[in-house]
UniProtKB/TrEMBL annotation:
One Gene Ontology term of the molecular function aspect: oxidoreductase activity
Protein name: NAD(P)-dependent dehydrogenase, short-chain alcohol dehydrogenase family
Domain of life: Bacteria
PANTHER family tied to this protein: OXIDOREDUCTASE, SHORT-CHAIN DEHYDROGENASE/REDUCTASE FAMILY (AFU_ORTHOLOGUE AFUA_5G02870), SHORT-CHAIN DEHYDROGENASE_REDUCTASE FAMILY PROTEIN
Species this protein is from: Jiangella alkaliphila
Length: 252
């Protein structure tokens, strides 16, 4: 059985990616930090497709826990899918914070760094022995890294996401000898729980963002999840080292 591990799969893009991966035949392991009920929703959605999914807790900001998580993941896969192999990894956990230069704190910088860049790097390192040769890795990045449409206040967030874009290319090169493909997906404004459900709390933000999008609306998690699942699949077997923008033409 081919297993996809979706980090941050309890809501939003991660949840959509997990369900889309299950639709393509993967068994799914999703992680959550403080939203176990969302992980349960993901599991139910996968089961409705006739698939199998399990959930494990993980704090991507705590790199010291990654070794223990890798062992627990190995045990979970062996118990749930005997003989199953990790064929896909999605590094999707994220946080969203903004601050102008004069307001950025060391604590905020470190928090964004731990979750958005350090976490994906060292978690991938910890899980590498579990990944099958020929597996696929997808990192979730952001259109905030684009040279056009820069929004004040997101300098640290965008810098970390930009680092992840570069890391994606280097991992693609380093892991190519094992046939492991590494790509990233760059969403534009998308209705997720990021920023404490910002679009739900501030619906007045939606119309201006939609107006900047060529296709005339903000993204839905399913829009991005489908792209991630495609990159995990054999249909994308000749794509590696790329950052794929999935934004509906944001700031086009």
């Amino acid at each position: 059985m081919s297993v996809a591990v979706v980090i941050g799969g309890s809501a939003g893009i991660g949840q959509a990616a997990a369900v889309a991966a299950a639709h393509r035949g993967f068994g799914v392991v999703v992680t959550y930090r403080r939203h176990p009920e969302g992980a349960d929703e993901t599991i139910r959605a996968v089961k409705e497709l006739g698939g199998t999914a399990v959930a494990l807790p993980l704090d991507v900001g705590d790199a010291a826990s990654f070794g223990a998580f890798a062992e627990r993941l190995r045990e979970t896969i062996a118990a749930t899918w005997p003989g199953g192999r990790v064929e896909a990894l999605v590094n999707n956990a994220g946080i969203g914070e903004m601050a102008l230069l004069g307001d950025i704190t060391d604590e905020q910088y470190e928090r964004l760094h731990r979750v958005l860049l350090k976490g994906p790097l060292f978690l991938t390192q910890a899980l590498l022995p579990l990944l099958a040769d020929g597996a696929a890795i997808v990192n979730t990045t952001s259109t905030s890294t684009n040279p056009a449409g820069v929004t004040p206040g997101y300098s640290v967030y965008a810098a970390m996401k930009g680092g992840l874009v570069v890391l994606t290319r280097y991992l693609a090169k380093e892991l190519a000898g094992r046939g492991i493909r590494v790509n990233s997906v760059s969403p534009g404004p998308t209705r997720t729980r990021l920023g404490d459900d910002a679009f739900d709390r501030f619906p007045e933000l939606i119309a201006p963002q939609a107006a900047r999008t060529a296709l005339g609306r903000i993204g839905a998690p399913d829009d991005i999840g489908a792209v991630i699942a495609f990159l995990l699949s054999d249909d994308a077997r000749w794509i590696t080292g790329q950052d794929i923008e999935a934004s509906g033409g944001y700031d086009l």
